[in-house]
Amino acid sequence: IDLDTAKKELEEFIPHVRNISDSSIRKMAGRDLARFKEFKKQGIAIKFGRFTKKENEQLQKNIKEFLSITGIDSAEKLFFTWRYPEEKETISSLKVEHQFCAKISEGIPRPWRLIYYRARKIFDPNNYKGRYTKEEKEKLKKYHALHGNNWKKISELMSRSNLSVAMKFSEIKSPINYGPWSREEIQKLKLAVKEVMKRRLEMEDGSSPSSLGEPNGDLLVKREQLCQQLPWTEIETKVGSRYWRQCKQKWHSILAKKMSRGQQSERKTEILENKIALIKRLYEMKVEDINEVNWEELSDAIGVGPNGVLQAQFYRLKVSCVPLWQRKTFSEIVDFIVEHKLPEFESEL
Q1: Within a 13 Å sphere around the CA of 159, how many CA atoms are in the beta-carbon half?
Q2: Where are the domains of the chain?
Q3: What share of the chain is helix, strand, coil (3-state, %, to 5)?
Q4: For residue 109, which phi and psi values (nearest 5 degrees)?
Q5: C-alpha distances in Å from residue 319, one per residue of 15, 48, 175, 328
Q6: Alpha carbons 291 and 311: distance in angstroms, whole number
């Protein structure tokens, strides 16, 4: 199908698809669209975020079956074929012949690319080698000076995974602060996000910078746009003293606080309605693992965004309402809140 049609059809399953590159959309149209439609028929939503235990087990089962069918003797050869130059041609042919893409994604309602990356992480023997020594950190700096961001080359030299060396370099490339955020750091973070959002809006709307803001210089940005995936490595560079994970976590906490403040100023009735809606929807989901909750979808359904606000609200609920919540499973916590707190909230409403 043509690119515009692919975007329209994929948008039903991936709302942010228009922010994805054209080449990736073409691949998704071939690898994912038919799968997504099949999952829709079964009433299964497409998922993002952390893989659940059940999904990891299904992925491992898929890989085991594929190895059995093809006779390839290790998962490492499937995902890191370039490490075996003498067998490369044979392995590649077997992958094509036995529909590698389709096979490893069976029963997993996620984009193929995310399944593939998860499998690479699980089956890379270089991925779980413990903490970096001082010598390794020095080597990493040296190799980066020689090879730049060629993480594949650096991973070969260090016998660590691509992901591992890239993330570790992100942490050590500048003096990282692990203490409380200073006012200056927070201002740098806000400014960095503002610059990124300004560029994104200009690209999407073709607008001039002057037409995107209000008279006081603030950007006119929809709430949900602030929650979308942002280029955190770029923001990390602009902040300078924090690595990307810290920037992401801090930004989400800033959004959550601002939204919470807004809620506190609303009528008590609306706050209670939101609590009740959250409890009921979590109960209706009947999930066993908190990682199976699609917080983004839940935020949209309840109308309280960003999803960090809902997660924070649920955390406060379980800590304040559920005795010994640390010893209970997610489903037990939800059941307890439904039985003991939901009637109280409904009565108060």
Answers
A1: 4
A2: 3-123, 134-173, 183-205+221-260, 264-348
A3: 70, 0, 30
A4: -80, 65
A5: 33, 26, 36, 12
A6: 11
The total number of residues written for the chain in this structure: 349
Res 107: pLDDT: 92
144: which DSSP letter? H
Confidence band, pLDDT 50/70/90 cuts, at residue 98: very high
Do 105 and 112 touch, CB atoms closer than 8 A? Answer: yes
Taking the C-alpha atoms of residue 33 and residue 343, their distance in angstroms, rounded to an integer, is: 43
Give the span between the Cα atoms of 288 and 282, in whole angstroms: 11
**Is 304:251 a contact under the CB 8 Å cutoff?**
no
Considering the entire predicted model, what is its pTM? 0.48
229: left (phi over 0), alpha (psi -120 to 50) or beta: beta
CATH 1.10.287 fits 134-173, yes or no: no
d(CA 31, CA 6): 12
Tell me 148's DSSP state.
T
Give residue 129's Cα distance to chain centre: 24
Tokens describing residue 120: 């690479």
How many angstroms separate the CA atoms of 249 and 243, rounded? Answer: 10
Tokens of 262: 């807004």
> Tens of pLDDT along 51-97?
888 899 999 999 999 999 999 988 988 888 888 889 989 999 999 99
Q: How far from 71 is each of 27, 44, 85, CA to CA, in Å?
A: 27, 33, 17
Residue 213, beta-bridge partner list: 219
In this predicted structure, the answer to whether residue 210 has a pLDDT above a threshold of 60 is no
**Residue 297 neighbours by CB under 8 Å, 6+ apart:** 45
Cis-peptide, bond into residue 306, ω within 30° of zero? yes
Residue 256 phi/psi, 5-degree rounding, is -60, -40
d(CA 317, CA 338): 11
Residues 6+ apart with CB under 8 A from 82: 88
Rounded distance, CA 96 to CA 90, Å?
10
Q: Report helix, strand or coil for 342.
A: helix
pLDDT, tens digit, 9 for 90 and up, residues 151-165? 888 988 888 888 788
